[in-house]
Design brief:
Elements lengths: L6 E7 L3 E7 L5 E8 L11 E2 L1 H18 L7 E8 L5 E3 L9 E2 L7 H10 L2 H8 L8 H11 L1 H6 L2 E3 L1 H10 L3 E3 H4 L5 E2 L4 E2 L1 H7 L8 E3 L4 E2 L4 H7 L7 E6 H9 L6 E6 L3 E7 L11 E4 L5 E7 L4 H10 L1 H10 L3 H9 L10 E3 L17 E3 L7 H27 L4 E5 L6 H11 L3 E4 L4 H13 L15 E5 L3 H40 L1
InterPro entries: ATPase_NBD, Carb_kinase_FGGY, Carb_kinase_FGGY_CS, FGGY_C, FGGY_Carb_Kinase, FGGY_N, Gluconate_kinase, Xylulokinase
Enzyme class: transferase
GO molecular function: kinase activity
Length: 519
C-alpha cells in the first residue's frame, strides 16, 4: 500500500539485523523492512561481522521500504540512525577494512581486560569515560589487536565503529556521535572529547579516530549512488543519532530524570536518564551520552530471553511436541509450567550467568549455577528458577543504578519478555515497584526518528515522545512476593561473591577444553 504523507525513517543497525522503520510525524509506524545477517564466530569467544554486509543491509532495508510503499524522495523529510554499541574495526589508508567488525559480544580480550583492571588503573579510566572495563569495550579490543595482530594494528589508518563506517560509505566523512563514542572507553565524559590518556595507553592517535559531533548533528550531500538505491534525495537530512540502548529509552518514553526503561530481549538492560555525567565509584554502571544535556546511566546483562531459548532447545523437546499439538508457542507452555510453582521456586536459586555477565559484576568468567537443588524439585521448578534468575540479574542492576542516580520514579518495560504477563508480574514483585508496559514498536528506531525531528526543530523536546506512546498494561507489586524475593536476592548476591574464585577456575578449564577440541 502506497504511503502519501511526509515521513521520517528510523534506521536501527542491530546485532542480527538492520531495520528501516517509516514513521509519520507523530511516531506512528507506517511500514518497516528488516535485513538479517550472521554473526561470525571463527574461534571460541570471537564475535565478528562483515562490515560491508551491514552497510549493504542499511541500503537494502531503506530501499526496500521506500520502493515497496511508493514513498517518493521528497516525502522523506529526515532519517535518523541508531546502532549497536561497542563495535570496532581497523581501516587502511583507502578506507578499506583490514579486519572484520568486532562486535559487543566479542570476548577475546579477557586477558587485556584483567590487566587493565589490575595494572592500568582501570577504575580511573571508567570514571573518566563511563565505559566499564570489560571485553565488550573497544578499548580492550584495541589492546588485543595491538598485542595479537601487531602488523594489522600498525597498518591501520583509522579505527571506527559500524555507524562510523556506514556514514563514511555514504558521505566520505569520518564522524562519530557522542553517544557511540561514549561507549568506546576512549571518550571523556567531562570534555566530550577523546581521552588522551586512553589513546596513549592503546597507542593510537587522535587523527586515527573520527571527528566528534553531538547526536543532533545533521548530514547532507549523500553520494548519489546510495541515495538512488535507497530511494531518497541526496540532500535529505540524515541525523547521526545515538546508540541503540539510549535511543530505546526515548522510544519507550523514559526521557526524564528518574524514569527508567527495562528491556529484556535476548539479553537485558536497565537504563535511566540523568542531566549530567554520572559514574559509580564501584564501576558497576555505564554512563553514555544521549543528546546535549542528557545522559543515560544503566547497565546491560548478558542473559535474558536467551536462557528460555536454551531451556526450550536443550531440555524442552517434550514441551515443543506438546505445544505443536496444542497449536501454541512452546514458550507459552514453559510459562504455564512455571506458574504452577510458588515464588522462590521452593528454594531453587539460579545464577543466570551462562554467557558470563556484564552489569553489575562485569565478569566474563561468571558461570550459571543452580543452588539449593533437592529431590522435591521438578522440571517446572527449573523453568521458574531460570525466569527468576533473569529477574534477579535485572534487580541487581537496578539497585546499582539507584545507588548512583537515586530512586526510580517510573519504570517502563519492553522486549520479548514483555509479551508475558506472568513474567512482567514476577519482575514487578521482585523490584517492589509498579511496571508500565508501553505500546512500543521498534523502540530504538522510534528514538532515532524522534531525535531526527528534534534536531530539525520539529519537536520542542524529546519529552513530546510520551504523547506518542499508549500504555497497554500496568503491574502493581504483590508485597508478600516482594518479601520472598528480597530474602532470596540477598542469598543470590552472597552466592555470587563466594563463587567468584571458583568461576575463574571453571572458566579457565572450559577455555582449555575448547582449545583441546579445536586441536
Amino acid at each position: 500500500m502506497a504511503i502519501h504523507e511526509d515521513v521520517v525513517i528510523g534506521i536501527d543497525i542491530g546485532t542480527t539485523s538492520t531495520k528501516a522503520v517509516v514513521f509519520d510525524r507523530r511516531g506512528k509506524v507506517l511500514a518497516s523492512h528488516a535485513v538479517d545477517y550472521p554473526i561470525i564466530q571463527p574461534h571460541p569467544g570471537f564475535a565478528e561481522q562483515d562490515p560491508d554486509e551491514l552497510f549493504a543491509a542499511v541500503v537494502q532495508a531503506v530501499g526496500a521500504v521506500t520502493i515497496r510503499h511508493g514513498i517518493r524522495p521528497e516525502q522523506v523529510k529526515a532519517m535518523g540512525l541508531s546502532a549497536a554499541m561497542h563495535s570496532i574495526m581497523a581501516l587502511d589508508e583507502s578506507g578499506r577494512p583490514l579486519t572484520r567488525l568486532l562486535i559487543w559480544a566479542d570476548n577475546r580480550s579477557v586477558a587485556q581486560t584483567e590487566r587493565l583492571l589490575k595494572e592500568q588503573n582501570g577504575l580511573d579510566i571508567y570514571r573518566r569515560t563511563g565505559t566499564p572495563i570489560h571485553p565488550m569495550s573497544p578499548l580492550s579490543k584495541l589492546l588485543w589487536l595491538k598485542e595479537e595482530q601487531p602488523d594489522v594494528f600498525q597498518q591501520a589508518r583509522r579505527f571506527v565503529s559500524v555507524k562510523d563506517y556506514v556514514l563514511h560509505r555514504l558521505y566520505g566523512d569520518y564522524v562519530a556521535d557522542h553517544s557511540m563514542a561514549s561507549a568506546t572507553g576512549l571518550f571523556r565524559l567531562d570534555t566530550l572529547d577523546w581521552d588522551e590518556e586512553a589513546l596513549a595507553l592503546v597507542g593510537i592517535r587522535r587523527d586515527q579516530l573520527p571527528r566528534l559531533v553531538p547526536a543532533t548533528h545533521i548530514m547532507t550531500g549523500m553520494k548519489r549512488e546510495w541515495a538512488e538505491k535507497m530511494g531518497v534525495a541526496p540532500d535529505v537530512p540524515v541525523v547521526i543519532g545515538a546508540s541503540d540502548g539510549v535511543l530505546a529509552n526515548v522510544g519507550v518514553g523514559a526521557v526524564l530524570p528518574g524514569e527508567a526503561a527495562i528491556t529484556i530481549g535476548t539479553s537485558g538492560a536497565v537504563r535511566t536518564i540523568a542531566t549530567k555525567p554520572t559514574t559509580d565509584e564501584k564501576g558497576r554502571t555505564f554512563c553514555y551520552a544521549l543528546t546535549p544535556g542528557y545522559w543515560v546511566v544503566g547497565g546491560p546483562t548478558n542473559n535474558g530471553g536467551i536462557l528460555l531459548r536454551w531451556l526450550r532447545d536443550e531440555f524442552g523437546a517434550h514441551e515443543r511436541e506438546v505445544a505443536k499439538k496444542l497449536g501454541i508457542d512452546p514458550y507459552e507452555l514453559l510459562t504455564k509450567y512455571a506458574e504452577r510453582v510458588p515464588p522462590g521456586s521452593e528454594g531453587l536459586v539460579f545464577l543466570p550467568f551462562l554467557s558470563g555477565e556484564r552489569a553489575p559484576y562485569w565478569n566474563a568468567n561468571a558461570r550459571g549455577t543452580f543452588f539449593g537443588l533437592g529431590l522435591h524439585h521438578k522440571r517446572e521448578h527449573f523453568i521458574r528458577a531460570v525466569m527468576e534468575g533473569v529477574c534477579f540479574s535485572i534487580l541487581s542492576v537496578a539497585l546499582a543504578i539507584r545507588d548512583v542516580t537515586g530512586p526510580m520514579s517510573e519504570i517502563r518495560v519492553s522486549g520479548g519478555f514483555a509479551k508475558s504477563p506472568f513474567w512482567r508480574q514476577m519482575l514487578a514483585d521482585m523490584l517492589g515497584k509498579p511496571l508500565i508496559v508501553p505500546q512500543t514498536h521498534e523502540a530504538s528506531a522510534l528514538g532515532a526518528a524522534a531525535v531526527a525531528l528534534y534536531a530539525l526543530g520539529e519537536l520542542p523536546s524529546l519529552e513530546t515522545v510520551k504523547t506518542w506512546i499508549d500504555t497497554t498494561a500496568r503491574h502493581e507489586p504483590k508485597e508478600e512476593h516482594t518479601l520472598i524475593y528480597a530474602e532470596l536476592f540477598d542469598l543470590y548476591a552472597r552466592l555470587y561473591e563466594r563463587l567468584k574464585e571458583e568461576f575463574d577456575i571453571i572458566a579457565a578449564f572450559q577455555r582449555r577444553s575448547g582449545e583441546r577440541e579445536e586441536d
